TrEMBL record:
A GO MF term: amino-acid betaine transmembrane transporter activity
Transmembrane annotation, as ranges: 30-51, 58-79, 85-104
Domain of life: Bacteria
Family: Belongs to the drug/metabolite transporter (DMT) superfamily. Small multidrug resistance (SMR) (TC 2.A.7.1) family.
GO biological processes: glycine betaine transport; xenobiotic detoxification by transmembrane export across the plasma membrane
Key words of the record: Cell membrane, Membrane, Transmembrane, Transmembrane helix, Transport
Subcellular location: Cell membrane
Predominant place of localization: membrane
One Pfam family this sequence matches: Multi_Drug_Res
GO CC field: plasma membrane
Natural source organism: Pusillimonas minor
Annotated InterPro entries: EmrE-like (IPR037185), Small_drug/metabolite_transptr (IPR000390), Small_multidrug_res (IPR045324)
Protein name: Multidrug efflux SMR transporter
Length: 110
């Protein structure tokens, strides 16, 4: 179970880091730049722990899929970025893929 917590922590850290990357304005703002570097370091550390027990393809698919959904939410709420219907459908399909992998795949290392 702890491997899934590690993966969730990696995803959250990556989302924070990517949000800070946007706010860093090309690494010209000190604190968002620091948060970016530290956030990615934390994300990759927890991803490495995750890969001890979850297959790399499964972990990366979940990492990227949930990361896309979360960062899109952050973009919408924090940065006031909007999405059209095809983009929302695409994100829904990504989320559906993550759910299918976790619920139905034996490869997910349950």
């Amino acid at each position: 179970m702890h491997n899934w917590i590690y993966l969730l922590l990696a995803i959250v850290a990556e989302t924070v880091a990517t949000s800070a990357l946007k706010a860093s304005n090309g690494f010209t703002q000190l604190w968002p730049s620091v948060i970016t570097v530290v956030g990615y370091a934390i994300a990759f550390y927890f991803l490495a722990l995750t890969l001890r027990t979850i297959p790399v393809g499964v972990a990366y698919a979940i990492w990227s899929g949930l990361g896309i959904v979360l960062i899109t939410g952050v973009g919408w709420v924090v940065f006031k970025q909007t999405l059209d219907a095809p983009a929302l459908i695409g994100i829904g399909l990504i989320l559906a893929g993550v759910i299918v992998m976790n619920v139905f795949s034996r490869s997910a290392g349950h």
